């Protein structure tokens, strides 16, 4: 028990508290454990006590994707004794560049089973618990209550608010990370946890204290839409594992005067910005100082009415909280055409001379497009439209080509069929429809529909 | 608003991150000479800066991705010298020379 007490700073309060929480901290390590964990146990501050705390801990990873895979590898490697994983998805080929806990041979398998297969290969000693379904208002408390610490590796705001609220009510520390395209964020929340409503003095914030309101639904970009660089999300997942290991091994999550006084009182949001055009620079990583628990926080604040039974019964409604009603299509049917009908009309020679505008980003366009399509990325299109509106001038200046027939119809296609509708509206606003003589038509469902209805070999991304 | 050449300005840097740089010509850092006072002669604060950025720097017409009803839109954090603006007085914080103001949008992907 005492072999590495000498070279270690001790936090006697936390040690005592941890011993109360966990049984078995005084036991011997098996030979297998000793060999496997020796290199991390000799790190100053870690020791056998830290290792035993990890072995006696139960950790929940919610999301077995770009964050959960790299995080899971280090959590399993470090020997956290019980590891639960929640995810309802199956492995797809487009996951594999970043979701390194899966494998080509396991495409189509449930992600939780695939990741557990990988982790077990890495370290067979922990107990792995699959939860192969979505985390929802009705099951979240039952799952989270079985664990000591939660890692939020999910990909949407509604789930993030739900997980944080449950962690507040069940007094669980939460290590939260997110990443999209070329940016990543990480923050440790609710650690050490303090009961809801306790606001006098300094207590750590919850997710809602830091991010009071979600962004409007239309402004959010997902990894599927915006893309994601593997090492960026990987970096955030690994950092998440680092935080979780440190919290469990040092019992930073066990409420005590000692743990409150430590540096967790200075909540920090770490942001990582990855630039494809330059090497790592002084602003690639930034550590931002966040506030503590907020008196008026909806979840953890003074007059919070949030309860477990309320959440289970559907209040608050997380989906509603995170989504502003999406604008439904206002175009009349004669200004829209299905991808299949457009294709057939072309084949039959019914639309000889026309302009086909593709409003996807140029990276998407570069992988393939409909013959004759001209790329005008949506952002650029909107910008040009705004300039024309402001400075005046002929609306048709926005068109990429000038056909001889000034009434030649215009078709607009995008990725999934939303931007194209807006583009059609804008073109009409600019008078490009020549008072109705010229047709401006939206191709419904975008290139996704083109792949489904016309050309199954089309490289849609 | 006339005589802008003679009106005193405050030199600051403004950063955009988490995808917001897309609204500002894909440039992450701007050196800004902010007029020291607003139209009413009050010292320049964060509200005034946001207004100034919309008028002078924003290249993208989708202003509602940055401001809603003249306030910063939900889901954007404002950091004053790397500290959450709530620690500094939010929109009322009076800008000081050489301040760094960072706008970062909250991410949800994973
Ligand atoms: Zn809170």
From TrEMBL, chain A:
<dbReference type="InterPro" id="IPR001763">
    <property type="entry name" value="Rhodanese-like_dom"/>
</dbReference>
<comment type="pathway">
    <text>tRNA modification; 5-methoxycarbonylmethyl-2-thiouridine-tRNA biosynthesis.</text>
</comment>
<keyword id="KW-0547">Nucleotide-binding</keyword>
<feature type="binding site">
    <location>
        <begin position="94"/>
        <end position="98"/>
    </location>
    <ligand>
        <name>ATP</name>
    </ligand>
</feature>
<keyword id="KW-0548">Nucleotidyltransferase</keyword>
<feature type="binding site">
    <location>
        <position position="297"/>
    </location>
    <ligand>
        <name>Zn(2+)</name>
    </ligand>
</feature>
<keyword id="KW-0067">ATP-binding</keyword>
<dbReference type="InterPro" id="IPR036873">
    <property type="entry name" value="Rhodanese-like_dom_sf"/>
</dbReference>
<feature type="active site" description="Glycyl thioester intermediate; for adenylyltransferase activity">
    <location>
        <position position="223"/>
    </location>
</feature>
<dbReference type="GO" id="GO:0046872">
    <property type="term" value="F:metal ion binding"/>
</dbReference>
<dbReference type="GO" id="GO:0061605">
    <property type="term" value="F:molybdopterin-synthase adenylyltransferase activity"/>
</dbReference>
<dbReference type="InterPro" id="IPR000594">
    <property type="entry name" value="ThiF_NAD_FAD-bd"/>
</dbReference>
<comment type="function">
    <text>Plays a central role in 2-thiolation of mcm(5)S(2)U at tRNA wobble positions of cytosolic tRNA(Lys), tRNA(Glu) and tRNA(Gln). Also essential during biosynthesis of the molybdenum cofactor. Acts by mediating the C-terminal thiocarboxylation of sulfur carriers urm1 and mocs2a. Its N-terminus first activates urm1 and mocs2a as acyl-adenylates (-COAMP), then the persulfide sulfur on the catalytic cysteine is transferred to urm1 and mocs2a to form thiocarboxylation (-COSH) of their C-terminus.</text>
</comment>
<dbReference type="GO" id="GO:0005524">
    <property type="term" value="F:ATP binding"/>
</dbReference>
<keyword id="KW-0963">Cytoplasm</keyword>
<feature type="binding site">
    <location>
        <position position="66"/>
    </location>
    <ligand>
        <name>ATP</name>
    </ligand>
</feature>
<keyword id="KW-0511">Multifunctional enzyme</keyword>
<keyword id="KW-0479">Metal-binding</keyword>
<dbReference type="GO" id="GO:0032447">
    <property type="term" value="P:protein urmylation"/>
</dbReference>
<feature type="binding site">
    <location>
        <position position="111"/>
    </location>
    <ligand>
        <name>ATP</name>
    </ligand>
</feature>
<dbReference type="GO" id="GO:0002143">
    <property type="term" value="P:tRNA wobble position uridine thiolation"/>
</dbReference>
<keyword id="KW-0862">Zinc</keyword>
UniProtKB/TrEMBL annotation, chain B:
<keyword id="KW-0819">tRNA processing</keyword>
<dbReference type="GO" id="GO:0005829">
    <property type="term" value="C:cytosol"/>
</dbReference>
<dbReference type="Pfam" id="PF09138">
    <property type="entry name" value="Urm1"/>
</dbReference>
<dbReference type="GO" id="GO:0032447">
    <property type="term" value="P:protein urmylation"/>
</dbReference>
<dbReference type="GO" id="GO:0034227">
    <property type="term" value="P:tRNA thio-modification"/>
</dbReference>
<keyword id="KW-1017">Isopeptide bond</keyword>
<keyword id="KW-0833">Ubl conjugation pathway</keyword>
<protein>
    <recommendedName>
        <fullName>Ubiquitin-related modifier 1</fullName>
    </recommendedName>
</protein>
<dbReference type="InterPro" id="IPR012675">
    <property type="entry name" value="Beta-grasp_dom_sf"/>
</dbReference>
<feature type="cross-link" description="Glycyl lysine isopeptide (Gly-Lys) (interchain with K-? in acceptor proteins)">
    <location>
        <position position="110"/>
    </location>
</feature>
<comment type="similarity">
    <text>Belongs to the URM1 family.</text>
</comment>
<comment type="pathway">
    <text>tRNA modification; 5-methoxycarbonylmethyl-2-thiouridine-tRNA biosynthesis.</text>
</comment>
<feature type="modified residue" description="1-thioglycine">
    <location>
        <position position="110"/>
    </location>
</feature>
<dbReference type="InterPro" id="IPR016155">
    <property type="entry name" value="Mopterin_synth/thiamin_S_b"/>
</dbReference>
<comment type="function">
    <text>Acts as a sulfur carrier required for 2-thiolation of mcm(5)S(2)U at tRNA wobble positions of cytosolic tRNA(Lys), tRNA(Glu) and tRNA(Gln). Serves as sulfur donor in tRNA 2-thiolation reaction by being thiocarboxylated (-COSH) at its C-terminus by the MOCS3 homolog UBA4. The sulfur is then transferred to tRNA to form 2-thiolation of mcm(5)S(2)U. Prior mcm(5) tRNA modification by the elongator complex is required for 2-thiolation. Also acts as a ubiquitin-like protein (UBL) that is covalently conjugated via an isopeptide bond to lysine residues of target proteins such as AHP1.</text>
</comment>
<keyword id="KW-0963">Cytoplasm</keyword>
<dbReference type="InterPro" id="IPR015221">
    <property type="entry name" value="Urm1"/>
</dbReference>
<dbReference type="GO" id="GO:0002098">
    <property type="term" value="P:tRNA wobble uridine modification"/>
</dbReference>
